[in-house]
Design brief:
Layout (H helix, E strand, L loop, with lengths): L4 E2 L14 E10 L4 E9 L15 E5 L17 H12 L6 E5 L5 H4 L13 H19 L9 E6 L1 H12 L6 E5 L9 H7 L7 E7 L14 H16 L7 E6 L6 H16 L3
Parallel strand pairs: 4-5, 4-6, 6-7, 7-8, 8-9
Antiparallel strand pairs: 1-2, 2-3, 3-5
């Protein structure tokens, strides 16, 4: 059985862009998905301070984990999640800190991040993937690290297809997740079923951040002046407001002028999402 270890152990640090304390456990098996993957855990600056040895931290579970911390493993640049948390910590102190669990994707990304069957991607395995997070990953994290395991202190986040499963996961596992950050969600892959699913639920207390850039997605599919990504995002936001969520209170929707569909764009918007979810400033 593998153990948690320093991510940069046996690596040349100069070839990587990791800041702070990043841990890794390799080849974690998922009985729900019948596959294995490494799991990354970022521990905030105060985690190892002697005076904070009894402190417990909120946890954010994020999809596409290989893109979050290290440009060397990212498809096209990293989110700079580690640098962002360290900046917030320096500005606001330990109250702005939390643990981030990065769950890398694999060759089944389109199926694992979609709870619905899709004519191009095949059978959706989103429910199994969420069970992997809730039944396998979360118990390991709560056992190994000083977490606040309750719903109010547990969030889920992702972009594109990772945004789709994060939004769905917030509602589908409302017993576990109390907030979500949804960046440029690929709602088209789940439409109209994701909206029908949300419409069929009662209001669930929590916090939702959702965004999209004006320069991502085709406009031809809507025959409108906005892209289909923005069109679907607005549809979902309307559903959320009708359900009882209040813009600026427990729901923040942001359309970034000129924003595109890339890690650099999500990295730029990540601090604003955290400011809203953590009520900083």
């Amino acid at each position: 059985m593998t153990h948690w270890q320093d991510y940069l152990l046996d690596k040349n640090p100069e070839q990587h862009t990791v800041s702070g304390n990043l841990q890794i456990k390799t080849n974690i098996y998922s009985p729900q998905l019948q596959n294995t993957r490494d799991i990354l855990v970022y521990l905030p600056p105060s985690y190892d301070w002697p005076e904070m040895s009894q402190r417990r931290y909120p946890v954010l579970y994020m999809q596409d984990g290989q893109n979050l911390f290290d440009a060397a493993t990212s498809y096209a640049g990293e989110w700079q999640v580690d640098e962002t948390i360290e900046t917030l910590s320096a500005e606001y102190g330990p109250d702005a800190e939390f643990i981030v669990v990065g769950i890398p994707n694999n060759e089944q990304r389109q199926q694992e991040y979609n709870p619905f069957d899709h004519p191009r991607f095949g059978k959706g395995r989103g429910n199994d993937y969420l069970r992997f997070i809730v039944e396998t990953v979360k118990p390991e994290i709560d056992h190994q690290f000083r977490t606040l395991p309750d719903r109010a202190n547990t969030g889920i986040a992702g972009s594109s297809m990772g945004g789709l499963i994060s939004l769905y996961g917030y509602f589908h596992r409302a017993d576990v997740f109390g907030y979500t950050a949804v960046f440029s969600p690929a709602l088209w892959a789940g439409m109209p079923r994701i909206q029908e699913f949300i419409n069929g639920l009662s209001y669930i207390p929590g916090k939702i951040y959702l965004d999209v850039g004006t320069n991502e997605g085709s406009r031809r599919k809507t025959n409108m002046s906005i892209s289909y990504l923005m069109y679907h995002a607005r549809q979902v936001v309307e559903s959320l407001v009708n359900k009882g969520y209040s813009l600026g209170d427990d729901l923040l929707y942001f359309e970034e002028d000129g924003g595109a569909h890339s890690e650099a764009d999500w990295a730029r918007r990540f601090p604003d999402a955290l400011n809203f979810l953590l009520r900083l400033g």
